[in-house]
Structures are given as C-alpha cells and as structure tokens.
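Progress report, Aim 2. The chain analyzed during this reporting quarter is listed below.
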Amino acid sequence: MVDKRLHKTPGKVDWDEKHPDKFRGDVEETGIGFMGYDWSSKDDQFKVYLHYDQLYYWKYGEVSRLGKGFIDGEFWGTKCPKCGDKFFPPRVNCWNLDDNLEKTEWIELKQEGIVHTYTIAGWSGKSSLKRLPFVLAYVIVDGCKTAIANELRNIEPWDAEFGMPVKVVWKPKDERQGTVTDWWFEPADGWEPTVGDTPEKERIKELCAPVYEWVESMK
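Predicted structure tokens for the chain:
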C-alpha cells in the first residue's frame, strides 16, 4: 500500500524557537489560503474554496447571504418575527423555546458592537505568528443575542476592555473572499482606554513582553 498522507507520523522533533514555522522539516506545508468563491443568485447559495495543503470548500447553505454580504461589505443577521431577537452569526430558526423554532428573517445590521469577552493570543498558527500578541474578541453586533469572534486591531493588548465599543474595518473589496477574514474589529471612533496603569494592565504587559521579544527574534 502506498502511503499518500501529506503529513507523516512525527518522530523526534528538534524545536527551534527562532524558526517555529520550520519545526517539521519533513513536511512541506503550504499553509492556508482562500482560493475563491461562487455565488448563485438563482438558488441563493454561497460557496467558499479554501486551500490548506489540499483543496476544500464549504457551502453557507441557508445562511448564504452572510458570505455574500461580506463580499459586498454588509453584515446580514437574522431576526425572529415573534420575539424580535436578532442573531449574528445568523440562525435559521429562533432559539427561544416559546417560539417553537420560528423561521427567522434576514435583516441588515449596523457594523458596530460591544466586546462581550476577549483573549490575548500569545501563540497562533503559522500564518499569524509574526503578528503576536493580538487580541481575539467576541463581539455582540448591533444588539444581537449571539456573539462573533474576530481580531481586535489598532489597540495595545493591555488596553482591551470588556464592554468597549468597536467598529468594523474591511479589506479592499477585490481582496475579500466571503469569510470572516474579510474584516476585523477596531475601537470605535472616540473611544479611549482607561487612563493609568492598573495592576491588571501591568500584569498583561509583563506577560506580553517575552512574546514581543520572541517575535522580534524571528525577523
């Protein structure tokens, strides 16, 4: 039998802190790349092609308007016609038990929100290593009942706060692929972080310092 696996079973691995992206020299990894998308207006279906050492694709199915909206710079969520709850990412059916899985309706949302929770990444996949550390935030967009995760940029990691207002920033349209990587969050215009170095800020700065140093050593 011919072994056609792209990734061999790992043996002894020699770890190089300065070149973590080369720790498996026996594996030629192309990494992740969005190759394109298909949009069928006839049946309202959106499909994304993704390459990660081999070609994958996924269909948005009944929430295809979400992916097509990303291409057009729009946020489309859903709303229950009974209770009025809004969802982003969208839900096809309302989750309120009193509504008996009521079919939701599409609604365009404001591109603003509030940070529900967040984490500071000190490690990541190969494609993001040199951008560490960064803030990954779960944001409630336009008063929805669900939160969506994406990167919170243009902010020092220790300045991120629960409940802070944020806005959406888009890639140029010709670079969008209909996925969450088409956009990111930034602090809302006029927002300022809490003044002064609190004990928590000092703690996060201390934790981030070796990450900055390590990333700098890879350049």
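Residues 1-11, 23-30 have pLDDT under 50 and may be disordered. The chain has two helices and eleven strands. These observations will guide the mutagenesis work planned for the next reporting period.
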